[in-house]
Amino acid sequence: MSRLLSALALLVGLSGSAWAQSYIYTPPTSTPGVGTVTSITAGEGVDLDGTCGSGSTTTTGTLSSCTNINPQTGTTYTVLATDCGKQITLSNASAVAVTLPQAGSGGDFAAGCKIGFTNLGAGAVTITPTTSTIDGLAARVLQQYGGVNVISNGTNYVSTGVAPAVGADGIIDQDQIPTATTVIKGGVKASTCVSMSGASLTVSTNCRTASITMIIDGGGSAITTGVKGYIEVPFSCTISQVTMLADQSGSIVVDIWKDTYANYPPTDADSITASAVPTISAATKSQDGTITGWTTGITAGDILGFNVDSASTVTLVTVSLTCVKT
Predict the structure, then answer these.
(1) pTM (2 decimals)?
(2) Of 203, 264, 254, which Cα lies nearest the Cα of 225?
């Protein structure tokens, strides 16, 4: 019996060994991640020979970054798809109109297409995208030596790396700042008061208008004749109108004299009103925007004197000179 069991155990052991399998590892014929570059062609932003050319190599070469220049000297230019990655320079004494095709149009100017613009000429350069916008604007304007990079996001353009144009007067041109209505130039915020063109800043007449006012008060009684007071004007200006407002109906004539601070006080010989002396006649008000014959110019620091030549009934009157600062 024991011999039978031994025989069966031997049979099972032989059968088990007969079912075993062997596995053999075969290494790869090449090393992963290692290969040979057979050709390199330079393009926008990549250079092989240090000349920003478009050469190629199948052996050895040194890769470096570069930017190709596309110089334009005309008054119009339409940007090409091949301008992506380039710096376009514009140079003309007259205004230059640049048309920038729609971002992503026809597969061109796709997201990531970057184009640089620099204005080297005296004429302003206006960059106008077709359908698309730049920073939400319909156009961007570059004054001389101003520059901007625009990048397509596939639908519109955004700007980056803005280089503001600074004139000989040290003023930064407002056209470098991406906003439709509010711009800053030389630290001045533009509004309805300020307009700018190139290096020139102009303050509108309305925002330079001031009033010089003298109140003559009779203290409840009719105003008497004679000098009623003096005013120093701290700014230069040009008088454009005189207005008189009385407390009640009556008549009054007020002459105005002007002289320098050094010659204070002014006298009747220094009258600036000629034959058109400010007058209320049997009324409560008067206004003269013609001021015929007047000496209208005032220099900062001048002294004005107000003299009542005649008066009747009026106990209080305001004499107001409207002037434009110069």
Answers:
(1) 0.47
(2) 254
